[in-house]
Amino acid sequence: MLTPFGARLKLDSAFSGLPTTIGTIATEDSLLEETLIASAGALNERLNCLVVCLSHAWGGLEQVAVHDALGLFTLGLKVQVLCLQDSPVHTHLLAGGHGKVTLVPLSFSPKNYFDWIIRGELHRLLGEGVNLIHTHQTSLLGSIVPWLWGKSDVALVATRHIMNDHNKKDFIHRALYRRLDSLMVVSESVRRNILETHPLRRSRVKVVHLGLDFRLFEPSALEDEAIARQRGVWGADTQTIVVGLVGRIDPAKGQSTFIKAAAGLLKSLKSHEKLKFVIVGEETAFSDKNHLQELKAMVVQFHLEDQVVFAGYHANIPQVMRSLDIFTMPSRQEAFGLVAIEAMAMECPVIISRGGSAGEIVGEREEFGLLTRPDDAFDLQRQIRILLDSPQERVEMGKRARIHVKFHYDRRKRVINTLNLYQRALRRRQGFL
């Protein structure tokens, strides 16, 4: 007998136009591989790309920049990365590229406008043949665009990872964004936000979804013993429901809301229930904040020391997600939330904050996950309780979520769309368009 929640989630097999047969999925995989090879081949002799990511953090933006650069390198395309010396971006590229990715590390954090050292680096790199610059930080356009005036044959692409909360249609930003060949955004919601606040034509703002490598995010590839060991580290046995939050330790990520929701659930714990709440992540590098200690003090205040686990940084995210029973992302605002896609790829049911691209991720009817109000511990508690009380529907939601993200957020699609944008930008700069 389905609960009302279960009845709401019992959908037709052809929901949202997703592939429903193994043959359909296999055919799409084959087509993606062919298209990817063809797209890379079209740029093999033409593209000399400089990826720019000057950040000391290791969040979604930085991870996307690293994965994109490694993807270009793997395809045999010529790519260099301008990054900060010893930053997570630098160290991950050294490891992931096995020392073969060309890195241009800077020993300082540049200014956002008219940085003369950036000018020197760009002058040298352009002289060596760089013909396309892709920055993952639009804040750096003020120190990139001025040095490209007079370099009309060099294409400029940027990615906007987050929403914008103020108007940028002033004279200075008009001058900067006029030089941009294309602005990539991660979702339709971000695209609408950018068109409302930036001096850009619709044709220059393109949605290129984030993507995962589903060879890594494959639930069946993880052995039950590995999952049991991971859960054991957290103090959870097979009868324990593990609710998790994965993300950088930061007030905006909602860890305090998560802890308050945990306190509420444990107060009304049912006799047969065993719950464990796991917070995965570390504070931003070089941050002068001490939010982690504040969170630990909150756990002590609520007497949750035995139920809340601070797990720190984990490199093996697929294993973490597969070891959770419920994933939450109670952020104040996320433009997209790649970590939610990672959980869904591992068939873990998700609860994420409303706003940004949340509706695109979980579906209009919340068929692939549930939504919660930001900064509302009671609402988060209520949504977790719904999933706790509906174990079978919880499993079915996780399975639907994986099909959904595999269809929409395959990394190969992201690379193909990115290469197509690069090709159009180069043609425009070379006078063919």
Key descriptive features of the protein:
alpha/beta, about 15% strand, single chain, about 45% helix, about 425 residues, 6-stranded parallel beta sheet, disordered N terminus, 7-stranded parallel beta sheet
How do the helices and strands line up, and which of them pair or pack?
Blueprint: H1 4-9, H2 22-43, E1 48-53, H3 60-74, E2 78-84, H4 88-96, E3 102-106, H5 116-127, E4 132-135, E5 155-160, H6 171-178, E6 182-185, H7 188-197, E7 205-207, H8 224-233, E8 241-246, H9 255-267, E9 275-280, H10 291-301, E10 308-312, H11 317-323, E11 326-329, H12 338-345, E12 350-353, H13 358-362, E13 370-372, H14 377-388, H15 391-408, H16 411-429
Parallel strand pairs: 1-2, 1-4, 2-3, 4-5, 5-6, 6-7, 8-9, 8-11, 9-10, 11-12, 12-13
Helix pairs in contact: 2-16, 3-4, 8-11, 9-14, 11-12
Count of β-strands: 13
Strand order of the largest sheet: 3-2-1-4-5-6-7
Counting H and I runs of at least 4 residues, what is the number of helices? 16
Q: Shape, please?
A: globular
Give the radius of gyration.
23 Å
Strand content: 5-15%
**What oligomeric state best describes the polypeptide chains here?**
single chain
**Ends: how far apart?**
61 Å
What string gives the helices and strands in order? Answer: HHEHEHEHEEHEHEHEHEHEHEHEHEHHH
| SS-derived structural category | alpha/beta
What is the mean predicted local confidence, pLDDT? Answer: 90
Share of helical residues? 40-55%
Largest sheet: 7 strands, parallel
Low confidence ranges:
1-17
